[in-house]
Amino acid sequence: MKVVIDTNCLIPSIPPNNPEYWLYLAFKNQDFDWHISNEILLEYEEQIGEFYSPRTAELVTSILLTAPNMVLSEPFIKWGLISDDPDDNKFADLAISANVNFLVTNDRHFNILKNLPFPTVKVVPLSEFQKILGY
User: Fold this and answer.
1) Where is 41: in which H helix or E strand?
2) Where are the strands (E) in 14-131, listed by range?
């Protein structure tokens, strides 16, 4: 299963005592392939560094980059489908380019993708992705 994960789902999955930690465990168990672009990786690093610490950001990005089920790829086309928050387009563009099964996000800006006949992107919140994986 191929997925793109928004930063707002990654950040709460980092501490072992958070309920969202299951996401890290599922990734560690190779239950899915995590697709990341350089632009997304930079956002992860920046946001984790601000939310936790630069050291935590370095550790998380290191884990992601060395995992066998992490796929680094770049989108071919910049679709620009999310006008309310253009910064979110990097996730949508990669999801389309990589033809992922799910774009996992808790951000309402991605709801516009649910109504597009083309390109199709299956957007699910983190809680639904948890059910899909059976965690």
Assistant:
1) helix 38-51
2) 33-36, 70-72, 102-104, 123-124
With b for 16 or more beta-carbon neighbours within 10 A and e for fewer, the 47-83 pattern comes to: ebbeeeeeeebeebbeebeeeebebeeebeeebebbe
Q: What is the mean pLDDT of residues 68-73?
A: 97
pLDDT recorded at residue 66: 97
Residue 100 has pLDDT above 80, yes or no: yes
Query: How far apart are alpha carbons 19 and 45 in whole angstroms?
Result: 22
- How many domains does the chain fold into? 1
What domain range includes position 79? 2-133
CATH number at residue 7: 3.40.50.1010
Confidence class for position 133, pLDDT limits 50, 70, 90:
very high
